[in-house]
Amino acid sequence: MTLSKLVIKNITRRRGRFVFTLMGITIGIASFVTFLSMGGSLKSEINRESAALGANLVVTPIGSCAYEQVSILTGEILPSNITMSEVAKIRSIQGVNAVPVLTEKSAINNKPVSLNGIDVVQMMKFKGWRVAQGSYFSGHDDPSLVVGSAAAELFKLAPGSTVTVRGQQLTVRGVLQETGGRDDLTVFLSLPQAQRLYNTGDTVSYVAVKVDDLKNLEGYIQTIRDATNLGVVSDKQMLKSVLSIVGTVNITLQMIAAVSVLAAAFGIVNTMLTATYERKREIGILQALGARQRTIFTIFLLESGFYGILGGAAGVVLGLLVSLTAAPYISQNAFTSFVKGSGGGLIDLKTVAGSILFSALVAVAAGVYPAWRAARLSPVEAISYE
Amino acid sequence: MSNVIIKASDLAKSYETGAVTTHALRGVSLEIEKGSFTAIVGPSGHGKSTLMHLLGGLDRPSAGSVFIEGTDLRGLDNSGLARLRGEKIGFVFQFFNLLQGLSAKENIEVAAMLAGVPEKDQGARALALLAQVGLADKAGSKPSQLSGGQQQRVAIARALVNDPALLLMDEPTGNLDSASEAEVLEILRKLHVQGKTVVVVTHNNEIAQKAEQVICVRDGRIAA
Ligand SMILES: Nc1ncnc2c1ncn2[C@@H]1O[C@H](COP(=O)(O)OP(=O)(O)OP(=O)(O)O)[C@@H](O)[C@H]1O
Ligand SMILES: [Mg+2]
Known about the structure:
- The complex is a heterodimer.
- Chain A is 56% helix and 17% strand.
- Chain A is an alpha+beta fold.
- Chain A folds into 2 domains: 3-47 and 242-383, no CATH class; 62-229, no CATH class.
- In chain A, the strands form 2 sheets. In chain A, strands 1, 3, 4, 5, 6, 7, 8, 9, 11 and 12 form a 10-stranded mixed sheet that branches. In chain A, strands 2-10 form a two-stranded antiparallel sheet.
- Chain B is α/β, with parallel strands linked by helices.
- Chain B is built from 7 helices and 10 strands.
- A 6-stranded mixed sheet of chain B has the order 6-7-8-3-9-10, sandwiched between helices. In chain B, strands 2-1-4-5 form a 4-stranded antiparallel sheet, covered by helices on one side.
- In chain B, helix 3 runs parallel beside helix 5 (148-159) and helix 4 packs across helix 5.
- Chain A binds chain B through residues 1-3, 6, 9-10, 13, 281-282, 285-295, 378-380, 383, 386, and chain B through 53, 56, 58-59, 78-79, 82-83, 85-87, 91, 93, 95-102, 106, 109-115, 119, 122, 158, 162.
């Protein structure tokens, strides 16, 4: 017999209570891990999208805030308030390569899909896409579609397939090679075609800008602002403000998780206090056999710590399963759409070990009061208990 | 003097329960010799268990002193008392002596663990002690699968795990039928022959008659 064997025998004696207490901490840690992994993949996805966007500057209608900037990265619809004459003004600035984009949404087989109207020639130069199947747009006003690799796979599209957009049958002309960004899930059409289908006149949603001289970014921003009365942000500013929103969301999620871990901790306190009452006599017997207060304290603390380690391990497994299986089904909005397709693959060994350690620490902390109560019992008081 | 294992002087113990003070012991002095067989008798509620707890360092007196093998228990803190109990004393109580979730063998192994016996030696030690009380075949039985007498014998075996000089038993045959009682009695006799100091709180005349010394506690005092 060792202390830990004795502890395991004690803890598993009341099967039902053991299982339910364990479930509490398991669920708490699972939600913690789920939110952590989702938040983590959210961040890495944003970084990836921002890199895939490939712009140094993004021009949006004046007064647009971080939420609109998130939408650029997620492919959500933006109000289209920028006119082509303004785009032309940006283009006329020296050392600037500007590409207007109109973001819209459509559905294929009832699944939502992002549609981007693009300046097909400029965008190709801008992104350096490669075509995997079929061919790219033939010209400025080509009426057909080019689709990203993931979208092609998802909707089973190949060159020659037709897609109905706003009642209009359009033919897929080409499929792009994988880019690793949002472009993979996007359907592209030429800007004039998109503007016609969606009746947006000659407006676009945003303008992606690459500059020749990166050192003079501030100068370009000022020049564009002076020329157009539009809002301009650098990719770094955009990333910063988007990440700060995500950070707020993450903190909120983690607080929810913390509350469930806290509730589980009280479950442990309750279970352990009940155990000290039930085992009062046994505590007395152990003391008569020579167990010191310190030993009694250790036995009870180990018991709650054991709940923490076991519940933590189970919670990590459950949390990973949930984030892997549930993430793709989460309804799409600006924030959660990032998580789509990225899975919860961001959990590393450090997070696993950290979560289990966290769980063990919470459980041990929860066990301190009951263990102290148990250790403080005088032997005679414990023995006389019936 | 060196032959005295327990020496108690003017022991008093009172319990405060709300406004009521119960004087369980009102000045008890006694000496118990090493290797002797002592019975503590007396009417119910007159302080026998209280006395046994004080003699074994399970509780502290309100006044007076206890010396065990020359050690003044007043000089020991809680963990010192625990160490003393673990090293020198084996306790057997009247009821529910065993840890309920554990088998007879495991009960003894826990005591062995507390006495510092290495894990690999605990099993053999437990089986030898169970054999000593005639329960080698019940090693795997849980307390609920044992009779009252068998439970008491396991408790005695467990009390012997640290090879204590002193065995303190509170009515070890109190709730047993006469057959079980005879078995337990026989074990006590053997232990006495082996040289253990045995102190038994009892209502049982047979035990009292076998004892070398009988201490009668009445109303918290020693009666003649
Ligand atoms: N923890 C306690 N709190 C208050 N009073 C107590 C406590 N323990 C014992 N007493 C009282 O002290 C007195 C002596 O009790 P004790 O248990 O020593 O009697 P006893 O001689 O062992 O009786 P029995 O033969 O029934 O076991 C009794 O009046 C009892 O009610
Ligand atoms: Mg009694």
